[in-house]
Amino acid sequence: MKVKTVDELDLENKKVFVRIDIDCGSLENKKILDFKLENCLPTIKYLISENAKVIIGAHIGNSNNKKYSLEEVGLNLSTLLEKDIVFLDNIFNDSFKKLVVDLPAGSVILLENLVFSSSELNNSEDFPQFISNHIDYYVNEAFSLSDSNFASLNSSLDVLDKEKIAIGLNFKNEYENLRNIKNGLQKPLIIVLNGKEVTKKIEFANKFIEDVDKIVLIADVANSYSKAVGSDFSGNYDKDSLYMVKKLISSAKTRSIEIIKAGAINSSDKFEIPSNDVEYLIKVFSDAKSILWFGPVEGIGDLGPAFVGLEAFVSSIGDEACFSLEGSEYKHLFNYISTSGEAAQDYLKDNDLIVLEKLEEL
What global pTM score does this model have? Predict the structure, then answer.
């Protein structure tokens, strides 16, 4: 990617529009909202430290519903930054231009929910054409929205001068780490699948079926495996995933890939993992050069010893993993934790990500 990163720009007294992702469906999903805000802070703080004038654009939801106003987010952001910020409920007027000019360097403006504008929702060029007249740089700090059809992410790349366009620090980190994963990890490679949405987990494993050496199945994924191979067990399983699980078993057998079932969810909906499984995984993990973990890590403390002293590259993919790792005593064991949810999965599965593709073509 030839696009510059924000730390390559001359930012002194420059007006910088930063598109971030804080979409959490509802302001009530505070845990997800706070998590996403934290991911944006390094870029925002860097811009402030370089005396830029920071204009932040974001959205929650996908309609003009006033209950999704970002005014409350502005208060939260002000606390996180430990400085006052300006909340602006309308930018399509002359006062916006005057405000941006008059504010001192290092100031922060948070715009009202961008999807309150039909221009944003319709991917119209009206928004980027307006904003381009009032900014020096545009920074995309929303890798997780790389499939977006919103104007501030998509048509902006068609309208803005490419010399004005840059990516944020977290965007760069996501892109480089995911590209390294996509282009090949060191072998032996182990993939760990854990949690619900079993079909999605299997699709992830299939992406690496020609490269993986062992696949470890945990919890709900392990239950579906047990049912697929005809084992007698009393736990719940994902009926819709059985075809995909059987297909994975067949593909693994053809390629001599070992599938390891390590623990399952019992009939009381509790996670159980036998001590002999832990002992075996300690040996399996110690032989690995790369480990990809897809799914949550909460509730599997028994596996902690399997990670101690690992020299392998251990990465975590998916929203479940991100949120369950926050505050976890095992967070430090992961070299890389993806924060872009389904966008990361789509990138690794070669699904279309229109915004990312446009950035790569600049």
Answer: 0.87
